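Exam revision sheet. Question 4 asks you to relate a sequence to its structure. Input first:
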Amino acid sequence: MNTAIIKPQWSPLTIALMVLGFIAFWPLGLLVLGYILWGEKFGGSAEKAQGYFNKGRAWCSSNKGAHRTWNNRSYSMNSSGNAAFDDYRAEQLRRLEEERARLDAEIDAFHEYMANLNKAKDREEFDRFMNERRGTRQGYGDQTNGDSNNNGGNWGQNNT
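Answer key, C-alpha coordinates:
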Protein backbone atom coordinates (compact mmCIF):
# COMPACT_ATOMS: atom_id res chain seq x y z
CA MET A 1 0.00 0.00 0.00
CA ASN A 2 1.41 3.34 -1.06
CA THR A 3 0.63 5.95 1.57
CA ALA A 4 2.43 8.91 -0.05
CA ILE A 5 0.32 12.07 0.02
CA ILE A 6 1.97 13.43 -3.13
CA LYS A 7 2.65 10.75 -5.71
CA PRO A 8 5.73 11.04 -7.94
CA GLN A 9 3.89 11.65 -11.18
CA TRP A 10 2.98 14.55 -13.44
CA SER A 11 -0.15 15.95 -11.89
CA PRO A 12 -1.43 19.51 -11.47
CA LEU A 13 -0.45 19.42 -7.80
CA THR A 14 3.15 18.30 -8.39
CA ILE A 15 3.58 20.76 -11.26
CA ALA A 16 2.28 23.59 -9.10
CA LEU A 17 4.61 22.56 -6.25
CA MET A 18 7.54 22.45 -8.65
CA VAL A 19 6.78 25.93 -10.03
CA LEU A 20 6.33 27.34 -6.52
CA GLY A 21 9.57 25.66 -5.49
CA PHE A 22 11.43 27.34 -8.36
CA ILE A 23 9.89 30.69 -7.48
CA ALA A 24 10.62 30.45 -3.75
CA PHE A 25 14.07 28.80 -3.84
CA TRP A 26 15.36 27.17 -7.03
CA PRO A 27 16.97 24.09 -5.35
CA LEU A 28 13.57 23.28 -3.89
CA GLY A 29 12.10 23.27 -7.39
CA LEU A 30 14.86 20.93 -8.55
CA LEU A 31 14.14 18.65 -5.63
CA VAL A 32 10.46 18.43 -6.57
CA LEU A 33 11.39 17.83 -10.22
CA GLY A 34 13.73 15.01 -9.17
CA TYR A 35 10.98 13.50 -7.06
CA ILE A 36 8.56 13.62 -9.99
CA LEU A 37 11.05 12.01 -12.38
CA TRP A 38 12.73 9.42 -10.16
CA GLY A 39 10.39 9.02 -7.19
CA GLU A 40 8.86 5.78 -8.52
CA LYS A 41 12.25 4.09 -8.58
CA PHE A 42 12.60 4.47 -4.85
CA GLY A 43 8.99 3.56 -4.14
CA GLY A 44 8.88 5.62 -1.00
CA SER A 45 10.62 3.07 1.23
CA ALA A 46 14.16 3.00 2.54
CA GLU A 47 14.58 -0.65 1.50
CA LYS A 48 13.73 0.07 -2.15
CA ALA A 49 16.01 3.11 -2.18
CA GLN A 50 18.88 1.07 -0.72
CA GLY A 51 18.24 -1.69 -3.26
CA TYR A 52 18.32 0.80 -6.12
CA PHE A 53 21.56 2.30 -4.77
CA ASN A 54 23.17 -1.14 -4.42
CA LYS A 55 22.14 -2.06 -7.96
CA GLY A 56 23.81 1.08 -9.33
CA ARG A 57 26.92 0.52 -7.25
CA ALA A 58 27.20 -3.10 -8.44
CA TRP A 59 26.90 -1.94 -12.06
CA CYS A 60 29.68 0.62 -11.56
CA SER A 61 32.01 -1.89 -9.91
CA SER A 62 31.38 -4.48 -12.64
CA ASN A 63 32.45 -1.98 -15.32
CA LYS A 64 35.70 -0.97 -13.58
CA GLY A 65 37.82 -3.29 -15.72
CA ALA A 66 36.70 -1.74 -18.99
CA HIS A 67 37.16 1.92 -18.15
CA ARG A 68 39.36 4.35 -19.98
CA THR A 69 41.34 7.02 -18.21
CA TRP A 70 41.84 9.98 -20.52
CA ASN A 71 43.90 12.08 -18.12
CA ASN A 72 46.98 9.92 -18.17
CA ARG A 73 45.98 8.34 -21.49
CA SER A 74 46.24 4.79 -20.29
CA TYR A 75 43.74 2.29 -21.54
CA SER A 76 42.96 -0.68 -19.36
CA MET A 77 40.66 -2.91 -21.38
CA ASN A 78 40.03 -6.56 -20.98
CA SER A 79 41.27 -9.00 -23.56
CA SER A 80 38.89 -9.82 -26.37
CA GLY A 81 40.02 -13.43 -26.40
CA ASN A 82 41.57 -13.08 -29.86
CA ALA A 83 45.33 -12.48 -29.80
CA ALA A 84 45.44 -11.05 -33.32
CA PHE A 85 42.72 -8.53 -32.55
CA ASP A 86 44.37 -7.60 -29.25
CA ASP A 87 47.66 -6.96 -31.09
CA TYR A 88 45.83 -4.90 -33.72
CA ARG A 89 44.06 -2.90 -31.03
CA ALA A 90 47.31 -2.29 -29.12
CA GLU A 91 49.01 -1.10 -32.34
CA GLN A 92 46.13 1.24 -33.19
CA LEU A 93 46.08 2.66 -29.66
CA ARG A 94 49.86 3.23 -29.84
CA ARG A 95 49.45 4.97 -33.22
CA LEU A 96 46.64 7.14 -31.88
CA GLU A 97 48.74 8.02 -28.84
CA GLU A 98 51.61 9.11 -31.10
CA GLU A 99 49.20 11.20 -33.18
CA ARG A 100 47.77 12.77 -30.02
CA ALA A 101 51.29 13.60 -28.79
CA ARG A 102 52.12 15.18 -32.18
CA LEU A 103 48.93 17.27 -32.09
CA ASP A 104 49.62 18.33 -28.50
CA ALA A 105 53.11 19.47 -29.57
CA GLU A 106 51.57 21.45 -32.46
CA ILE A 107 49.09 23.07 -30.10
CA ASP A 108 51.91 24.05 -27.74
CA ALA A 109 53.93 25.47 -30.65
CA PHE A 110 50.91 27.45 -31.87
CA HIS A 111 50.25 28.85 -28.39
CA GLU A 112 53.92 29.88 -28.14
CA TYR A 113 53.72 31.53 -31.58
CA MET A 114 50.58 33.44 -30.60
CA ALA A 115 52.18 34.54 -27.33
CA ASN A 116 55.22 35.86 -29.21
CA LEU A 117 52.96 37.57 -31.73
CA ASN A 118 50.97 39.23 -28.95
CA LYS A 119 54.18 40.33 -27.24
CA ALA A 120 55.45 41.87 -30.48
CA LYS A 121 52.12 43.63 -31.02
CA ASP A 122 52.13 44.92 -27.45
CA ARG A 123 55.72 46.13 -27.85
CA GLU A 124 54.81 47.93 -31.09
CA GLU A 125 51.78 49.61 -29.48
CA PHE A 126 53.82 50.62 -26.46
CA ASP A 127 56.59 52.07 -28.66
CA ARG A 128 54.00 53.98 -30.70
CA PHE A 129 52.45 55.34 -27.50
CA MET A 130 55.82 56.43 -26.13
CA ASN A 131 56.77 58.12 -29.42
CA GLU A 132 53.47 60.01 -29.50
CA ARG A 133 53.86 60.98 -25.87
CA ARG A 134 57.39 62.22 -26.40
CA GLY A 135 56.19 64.30 -29.34
CA THR A 136 53.45 66.01 -27.36
CA ARG A 137 55.54 66.83 -24.29
CA GLN A 138 56.92 70.33 -24.45
CA GLY A 139 60.69 70.62 -24.62
CA TYR A 140 61.28 66.88 -25.00
CA GLY A 141 62.28 65.05 -28.12
CA ASP A 142 63.38 66.27 -31.54
CA GLN A 143 62.43 69.96 -31.34
CA THR A 144 64.71 72.54 -32.91
CA ASN A 145 66.39 75.23 -30.83
CA GLY A 146 65.58 78.05 -33.27
CA ASP A 147 61.82 77.65 -33.07
CA SER A 148 60.14 80.90 -32.00
CA ASN A 149 57.16 79.14 -30.43
CA ASN A 150 59.15 77.59 -27.64
CA ASN A 151 61.45 80.55 -26.95
CA GLY A 152 64.43 79.08 -28.73
CA GLY A 153 64.38 75.87 -26.78
CA ASN A 154 64.66 77.72 -23.46
CA TRP A 155 61.27 76.91 -22.10
CA GLY A 156 60.42 78.13 -18.67
CA GLN A 157 63.04 80.90 -18.83
CA ASN A 158 62.30 84.57 -19.34
CA ASN A 159 64.36 86.14 -22.19
CA THR A 160 64.07 89.86 -21.54
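Marking note for examiners. The chain has two domains: 1-62, 83-137.
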